[in-house]
Write a sequence for this structure.
């Protein structure tokens, strides 16, 4: 479950996707391994989530930074949640703690649920090339977990034609990324939107929709409920 944002304006942390989380994790999961590496104060991050019991689902929370053996914590986990923050800091910590292979194995081979939000969604993709974050630290590679074979731009913002700000829009930055050869599709997830991936099926959920960018093609607009399963297999959408 790849979520664009954790808090939403006027709401609580992950409150806008509470039902989606409970449906995704189900009743078999009792405890979730939380990875707070995207923020500097990991203790405070864990304290933020623990009283909420993952937004009312009743799931216990184990924070990986409190474990003396992060690799073993991943191997024993029932489900994994990686929260938002700085994507570069997060990915560096995943490499530093030798967790890239272990998380991939648990999710893709063992089939445990993975949930990411913002930076946690970025690292679930091919690479973090399309993050909005500043490179405050230097991970050994921009390659990420590769749980899905494309990239995502969380917090996607549409151009505001009324503003006089001259900085590049998200769309322009993604287009520049696609000027490089062999770059994968990018799904721009607006806040309030998430992508549910189950096996070979991917479905857009939430309330605000998404924008899909394919190299060499015009971006396309998609509403919640859109079937994005083709992104799991190739870079071209089916013919209408």
């Amino acid at each position: 479950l790849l979520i664009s944002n954790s808090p939403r304006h006027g709401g609580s942390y992950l409150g806008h996707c509470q039902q989606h989380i409970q449906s995704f994790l189900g009743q078999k999961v009792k405890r979730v391994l939380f990875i707070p590496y995207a923020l500097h104060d990991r203790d405070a991050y864990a304290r933020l989530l623990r009283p909420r019991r993952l937004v009312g689902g009743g799931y216990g929370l184990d924070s990986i930074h409190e474990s003396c053996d992060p690799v073993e914590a991943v191997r024993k986990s029932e489900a994994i949640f990686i929260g938002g923050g700085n994507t570069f800091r997060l990915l560096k910590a995943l490499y530093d703690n030798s967790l890239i292979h272990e998380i991939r194995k648990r999710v893709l081979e063992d089939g445990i649920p993975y949930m990411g939000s913002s930076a946690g969604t970025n690292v679930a993709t091919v690479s973090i090339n399309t993050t909005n974050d500043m490179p405050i630290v230097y991970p050994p590679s921009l390659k990420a977990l590769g749980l899905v074979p494309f990239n995502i731009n969380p917090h996607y913002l549409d151009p505001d034609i009324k503003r006089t700000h001259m900085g590049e829009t998200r769309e322009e930055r993604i287009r520049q990324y696609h000027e490089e050869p062999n770059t994968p599709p990018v799904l721009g997830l607006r806040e309030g939107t998430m992508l549910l991936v189950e096996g070979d099926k991917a479905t857009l959920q939430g309330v605000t929709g998404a924008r899909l960018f394919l190299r060499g093609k015009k971006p396309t607009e998609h509403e919640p409920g859109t079937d994005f399963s083709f992104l799991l297999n190739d870079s071209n959408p089916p013919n209408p």
User: Anything to note?
Assistant: The helical segments are 18-25, 42-49, 53-56, 70-76, 87-96, 100-109, 119-122, 170-177. The two ends are 27 Å apart (CA to CA). The chain has a mean pLDDT of 91. Residues 2-230 form a domain with the Rossmann fold fold (CATH 3.40.50.880).
